[in-house]
Each structure stands twice: as structure tokens, then as C-alpha cells.
Amino acid sequence: DIQMTQSPTSLSASVGDRVTITCRASQSIDSYLNWYQQIPGKAPKLLIYAASSLQSGVPSRFSGSGSGTDFTLTISSLQPEDFGTYYCQQSSNTVGSIFGQGTRLEIK
Amino acid sequence: EVQLVESGGDLVQRGGSLRLSCAASGFTFDLYAMNWVRQHPGKGLEWVSAISGTGDSIYYADSVKGRFTISRDNSKSTLYLQMSSLTAEDTATYYCAKDLYFDTSGPSFEYWGQGALVTVSS
Fold it and tell me: Residue-wise over B63-102: b if at least 16 C-beta within 10 A, else e?
């Protein structure tokens, strides 16, 4: 089974900061990696698919990179509305836990 | 505009059954796979099940295999999740999610509904 591990588990950053969240797969998943943002009380929202493709309507300050086992979500200049929990998700198959455990982002 | 509206969430006794529905609009329903994803209270996301656009390919998480059945009615643009032998571990918010693709053995969740709360009491 493929396991997804995110780091850090939580972080606090200021408006304007560059923020990076990392996701590691237990085995290669090529570029089958998506990123989601979930604001408390709301459904998740797709940000990045296929590791680096920006979903329509998502601000360009969000970007994704990586392939194989190591992936990164970057927010180039943090905005107040970017708080919430971020999840990576492998879309290589449905075996095991396809989501990472989440990274809680707090705005200082 | 894509809309996904879940219904059927309820309080149910342990061992009971429940059917969730998800009414879809704003896209050509039978061209996309559909999924159920759940979230236990205060916890992370757990994929539950996926079904291809035609309904020919179906996938389940091990945690629900043999107890849950996913189906779709393309004439009604509606997705279903029949849940049986429910336990306290099934207590969660269940989200319906449109896939990016027609058929995939690895889902990608493009749009999500608002969620339906299922509570299993002991």
C-alpha cells in the first residue's frame, strides 16, 4: 500500500510569507499527486492536480512541484484567506490511505 | 456551475443501514467518474468509493468493502451510497465528489458537495 506523509503537521506564517508544504509517498507515484485546501466547516477544494497543474480559478500564488516520491506545495505570498488545512492525495491507485494526514496552516 | 447536493445523512443505530444520495448538475454527469469521501469528526479525509462514468468500474476502500455499495443513475444525474452493517467508526461527514476523469483507478476530486453527516449510535 502507498502511504502519504506530509510535513509539517502544522505551521504558522505571516501574510506575505512564502510557505512550503511537503508530501512524501512511500513509493513512486510518478506525477499522480493532487493538493487540496479545506477551510474549517467547508468542503475541500482542489488546488493542484497532476503534481503541478493549477486548477482553474485557483490563484497563481499556489504552485506544485515534484515527481516520484517527493512533492511540494508552495504559496508564494501568503494571504489571509489561505488559512486552513492542506492535504496531499495520491491518484495512482486506490490501495491504502490515499490522503496525507494534513497540514494545518495558521495565519499569524 | 457545478453543483453537488448530498442528502440522506441521519442518525442511525449500530448495525443499521442508510442510503446517501448526491444530486449533480452543471456538467454532463455520465462523462465523469464520481466518488464518496468521508471525514471523521475532527480528522482527516478518507476516500470511500469510486464509480466510473458508465458504472462499469467500481472501487472501494478496504474499510467499507462488503458493507457499502456505490451506484449511479445517469438518467437522474444522481450518485448513491448504500451503507449497511454500520458501526461507530462510520460516523463521519460524507462528501460526494466529481472526478476529473471519466474512469480512473486513482481518483482526483475536482468538485465537492457540502457533505452529509452520518452518525451511528451504539
Answer: ebeeebbbebeeeebbbbbebeebeeebbbbbbbbbbbee
Shortest Cα distance from B73 to chain A (angstroms)? 23
Q: Which residues of A touch B111 (CB under 8 A)?
A: 46
CB A104 within 8 A of CB A39: no
Which of B56, B62, B38 minimizes the C-alpha distance to B102? B56
The SS3 call for residue B105 is: coil
Handedness of CA B85, B88, B93, B98 (dihedral sign): negative
For residue range B29-54, list pLDDT tens digits in order: 999 999 999 999 999 999 999 999 99
**Chain A: which residues have CB within 8 Å of chain B?**
32, 34, 36, 38, 43-46, 49, 55, 87, 89-94, 97-102
CB < 8 Å to B50, chain A: 94
Phi, psi angle pair for A82, to nearest 5°: -90, 5
Whether B109 and A87 lie within 8 Å, measured CB to CB: no
**How many Cα atoms sit within 13 Å of B53 on the Cβ side?**
12
Looking from the CA of A3 toward its CB, the CA atoms found within 13 Å total 2
| Across A86-106, average pLDDT | 92
